[in-house]
Amino acid sequence: MQRDHRRVERGWRILCCLGILLAGMLQGGFARSRITDPETFFGFPMGADRQLARWDRMVEYFVRLEKESPRLKVLDMGNTGMGNPFLVLIISAPENLARLDALQKINHAITDPGEVPESELSALVEEGRAVICQSMGLHATEVGGTQMTPELAFHLLSRDDPATRRILEEVLFFMIPCFNPDGQVMVTDWYRKTRGTAHEGISLPWLYHPYAGHDNNRDGDFLNLVESRYAARILYLDWPPQAYIDHHQMGSYGPRFYVPPYCEPIRPYADPLVWREISWYGSHIATRLEQEGFEGVINDAMFPGWGHFGWHWITPFHNIAGMLTESASARLATPIYIHPDQLRADSRQFPEYEAQSNFPSPWPGGWWRLADIVAQKKTAALALLDHAAKNRRIILENAILKARHQTERGAAAPANVLVIPSAQHDRGTAAGMIRILLQSGVKIHRLADSRMMGERKYPPGSWVIPMGQPKMGLIRNLLMQTRYSDNRWTRAPSGHPLEPYDLATHTMHEFMGVRVDPVRIEGFIDFPRVTAADLPAGEVKSAEGPWVLDGRRNDSYRAVNLLIDRGVKVFRLHEPAGKGKTGDFVIHRAEYSLLAETADACGVTFDTLPGEHPSTEKPVQRSRLGLFRRYYGGNMDEGWTRLTLEQFDFPYRSVRGGEIDRGQLNRRYDTLVFPHDLPALIKGVIPERYRRWIPTDIPAEYRSAISARGIENLVTFVRSGGCLVAFGGACNFAIEELDLQVTDVTADFSAGEFFCPGSTLKVNFDPGDPLAYGMPEEALVLFYDSPVFRIRPGSRNRDYVTVGRYREKEILQSGWLIGEEKIGGMAAMVRATVGKGEVVLIGFRPQHRCQTHGTFKLLFNCLLR
Fold first, then answer.
1. What's the rounded Cα separation, in Å, for the pair 103 and 106?
2. Is 24 a domain residue?
3. Same domain, residue pair 166 and 290
4. Residues 385 and 430 in one domain
5. Residue 422: CA atoms inside 13 Å, Cβ hemisphere, count?
6. How many secondary structure helices (H) and strands (E) does the chain include?
7. Are 464 and 611 contained in the same domain?
8. Which are the contacts of 647, defined by CB distance < 8 A and separation ≥ 6?
């Protein structure tokens, strides 16, 4: 009887287990059946040959998935520059999504543990979830990442296997499915337009971002682009992740897939645990790819740990394991066939295309498709999530350790605070820098009264940044002098220096012309914390004019433009007058309400300037400005120039080669600006070494160039009274085509003789020269592929003026400079009179990436004459 009872009990248990199992299977089947799969929605599988899903349809798909699954929350961060929605997807278990507020507080406490007791932190680690972020489509021609995201989302929303459930339960996954929606739309439309023609698969003829093109991944520090600010809100403020991957594509003729870690050298001042974690995550990703049979996977090569300050390279200094993947590219969505003998290596820590420990299974060649890219990126993305799910506690404990260690290092540093005095050459730009740092999550304080700090007394309103905070490494790189590594990792066996991956320094305050003082203090910082609302506002000091605007402030130029747009006459002082300095702007008559509105919009102060000063004033005339804009993939420096002009409300028109060829330029323009570029590309010739990036089979209507006739028209434009302004490499175009009495002294030096890759150098300016109004006598400029000028002896010496000149010695501030004696005392900026007009040569880029605020005025002065 007892045995029968046990049999019945055991039978019920089996039936219950079967019922639970069946219910789970039914639930899983129901989940799968009610989640729309990508192929059904788009009409083709993701990665299908010659098919691209457009961003608007992808937005529709993700919104539908949110309605179909409790595992997904869609965040619409706002509109992009062209009005497309910028989405962030949060994928996790429904119970995690139901308590996001609580999990966010836990994440903030773990990211910045401060004074949280150890016992509480242990409980938070137990309760918290690993926050992982992955982004795709930053570079819009790298189409595979964004095309993969519907597959990745569907996988996580529709499956109920143990691995997927573990990811959902242990991880909050933040996915940026397209970092550049505007570019995605442009590229998709271009591909569809050219599909089936002789031009199928070639790159876009113009920038694939409205302003930045490929450079949009260089904006993780200054946050100039609206898309960057959306990403920064997630990564730096609202949901700092423990790990982040930015998925990219690279050239077609090397390895199939690069995964972490980076190779040497690494940029200093990140917590060592970050570099260990990057190797830890990368090893798991590479192992998973090998397990699933992917060939041609490489790590610890090609991409160094010292790169630009874009997203995957700046996040380690936010204590985030910031990583990168790079897939070999097809021709957008068109397959490409690669012969075995076309495969190559010859990059950092990858000398030959053959098996090595970090590249154990070379790909042999053959057809390469978008479907291959989608598959490997999906596997890599899932591998990161799987690793985070399995190691959630360790990851959260590491986050606490990184924050604490960096705080301790900063507090113990010889300079444990950075002071930004309120008395600055350009106080508005200093406030702008503070605003950027606040968006990056840096803790900043402000003096309410005068205070001795170190050996100086600082006035009220000065900003104080303690180094003893989790983002010490970020602060150290952005706000203190840095020097690029000069060692075996940065030189070839011959001793010649190797180019850094982008600039040799990213010192924000040096780019912006803001003074920052490293100071050692003792005791606690009890000054109030700064918020964006605390930044100084503009004012009008008197209801009666005349008024004066400080010509040293960049924001004053914006105010002048707004006033000119409203019909107000503006004058400029060419000699000191009362409170006014040479270069200050004067307004005699204007409505007080208009001045107040302008002061509020620009953050400027309209001070009083008693008396009349007719002999020292001249009226300001704003140039009718044309900005040269070419095709052949577009010119990033031109895009950044447009953004700079728009930020300061300078009106302009884009000018292409065809318009210059037609002539009569003086009827429409006073000033033509040529941003940094190769002279050959300005004239429509693609140098051989650039043909791997710039398509030669571009449609005829997009083969922009300035012809020989157009060059004659430019000469006529200048000789008839026009002004031509050139930056960087475009200076060599102007020198040659206008037969200027100027030589680029760097042109014939080898890298071993002269080398300066993206560094800040010291230049002496004459603030009494109208082109240098508002500049300090010595300023820092960003030297990056910059010509340096010598005015050759000749009959026209009097027609040339040196506006800025490199110091004789000790020229380097931050970065890397070899052969300073080659440029010591040489001209950095020259003005040449040509007929009735003039040519302005600015060897450096005064508006580089809309970041070098310290030299913006050199451009602006060319436009307000």
1. 5
2. no
3. yes
4. no
5. 16
6. 25, 36
7. no
8. 558, 850
pLDDT, greater one: 436 or 687: 436
Q: How far apart are CA 96 and CA 73, in angstroms?
A: 11
- Residue 131's nearest CA partner among 163, 104, 171 is 171
- Provide the residue count of the chain: 865
Residue 6 lies in a domain: no
Q: Phi, psi (5° rounding) for residue 266?
A: -105, 150
For residue 583, the enclosing domain spans 539-619
**Residue linked to tokens 């592929």:** 785
User: For 703-755, what is each residue's pLDDT tens digit?
Assistant: 888 999 999 999 999 999 999 999 999 999 999 999 999 999 999 999 999 99
pLDDT of residue 526: 81
Instruction: Report the domain count for the chain.
Output: 4
The last residue of one of the domains, among 567, 586, 619, is 619
589 and 634 housed in the same domain: no
Of 20 and 205, the one with more pLDDT: 205
Which H or E run includes 186? helix 181-194
Residues 481 and 425 in one domain: yes
> Encoding tokens for residue 198?
């002789």
Would the pTM count as exceeding 0.85? yes
Judgement on whether residues 463 and 386 belong to the same structural domain of the protein: no
Q: Are 453 and 420 in contact (CB under 8 A)?
A: no
Asked whether the beta carbons of 506 and 469 are under 8 A apart, the reply is: no
Cis ω before 546 (30° cut-off from 0): yes
Q: Which residues are registered as beta bridge partners of 176? A: 135
Q: Give the whole-angstrom CA distance, residue 138 versus residue 180.
A: 5
DSSP 420-484: E-S--TTHHHHHHHHHHHHHTT---EE-SS-EEETTEEE-TT-EEEES-STTHHHHHHHHS--B-
Beta strands in 181-240 (DSSP E): none
Query: Which pLDDT band holds residue 689 (cuts at 50, 70, 90)?
Result: confident
SS (H, E, C) 105-173: HHHHHHHCCCCCCHHHHHHHHHHCCEEEEEEECCCCCCCHHHHHHHHHHHHHHHCCCHHHHHHHHHEEE
Lookup result for tokens 């040959």 = 49
Assess whether 615 and 659 both reside in one domain. Answer: no
d(CA 82, CA 23): 48
- Alpha-carbon distance of 239 to 284, in angstroms, equals 24
What is the Cα–Cα distance from 308 to 296, expressed in whole angstroms? 26
Cα diameter, the chain: 123
- The single-letter code of the amino acid at 56 is D
- pLDDT range class, residue 55, cuts 50, 70, 90: very high
Confirm if 173 and 385 have CB atoms less than 8 A apart: yes
Enclosing H/E stretch for 282: helix 272-291
Task: Evaluate whether residue 8 is within a structural domain.
Answer: no
